[in-house]
Amino acid sequence: MKSYDIEGRKILVVNAGECFHAYQGLCPHQDVCLDEGYFDGQLLTCHQHLWQWDIRTGDAVGLAEAPLEKYEVEVSEGEIFVVQSSALKAVDMLKDVSPASLERLEGLARREQLPAGTVIYEVDDPADDLYVLESGRVEFTIGRDDRTRLAGFMLRKGEVFGWAALLEQHPRRIARAVCHEDSVLLRLNGEAMLEALEADPTSGLMVMRRLATLVARHTTGPQNS
Ligand code: FES
């Protein structure tokens, strides 16, 4: 196993004998370098608290509570290339969207690099845009003035927030979203997204089904709409 710093990210490349795999280089638990861990040919183990992952997929095994972010690897003429995929491909809500529509959505996405402390939106702001976390960490609080409370964090690439932008008559924000650390986000206008999905009703239906599940989950969980 060996780690590389690529464009500000630590990437772990693992030689699994017949092929190579590439994953995020830091443990999703507490940012420990995974190249200091153990690899037995099938399982990757973080030495700190023994979280483990299946090397073929990055899926969590045993104690681990989060999967690893996986990168595609291409080997050509003796060189190994790590290919960064779009954060949209990691979005659960867009899993069943056709390649053509996903490409259209990628064309709508604006990539924003925001320093720690940036307020992305405030309570009562219009819910025009939906966001996909590419890297970093976003914190949500609900309430006003000095009566606020933490409503949760977004941590993993592909997590979506601000999804109220996809709802009819765009409700206003019910939480405050702030970058807890330097973060990279994809920002998509809700109306433009809906237009793209209306042009592909099969994909649109799948997105709406997943959105309904997300809304149901968040009515009892973090308030990040
Ligand atoms: S830091 Fe890796 S398992 Fe805790």
From TrEMBL:
GO cellular component assignments: cytosol
UniProt KW Oxidoreductase keyword: yes
Coiled-coil residue windows: none
InterPro entries: cNMP-bd_dom, cNMP-bd_dom_sf, Env_Response_Regulators, Rieske_2Fe-2S, Rieske_2Fe-2S_sf, RmlC-like_jellyroll
SUPFAM superfamilies registered for this protein in UniProt: cAMP-binding domain-like, ISP domain
Keywords associated with the record: 2Fe-2S, Iron, Iron-sulfur, Metal-binding, Monooxygenase, Oxidoreductase
Ranges where the Rieske domain occurs: 1-82
Pfam family, one: cNMP_binding
Record-level Gene Ontology MF annotations: 2 iron, 2 sulfur cluster binding; DNA-binding transcription factor activity; metal ion binding; monooxygenase activity
Entry keyword annotation includes Coiled coil: no
Residue intervals of the Cyclic nucleotide-binding domain: 93-197
Domain of life: Bacteria
SMART domains attached to this UniProt entry: cNMP
Record's protein name: Methanesulfonate monooxygenase component, iron sulfur protein
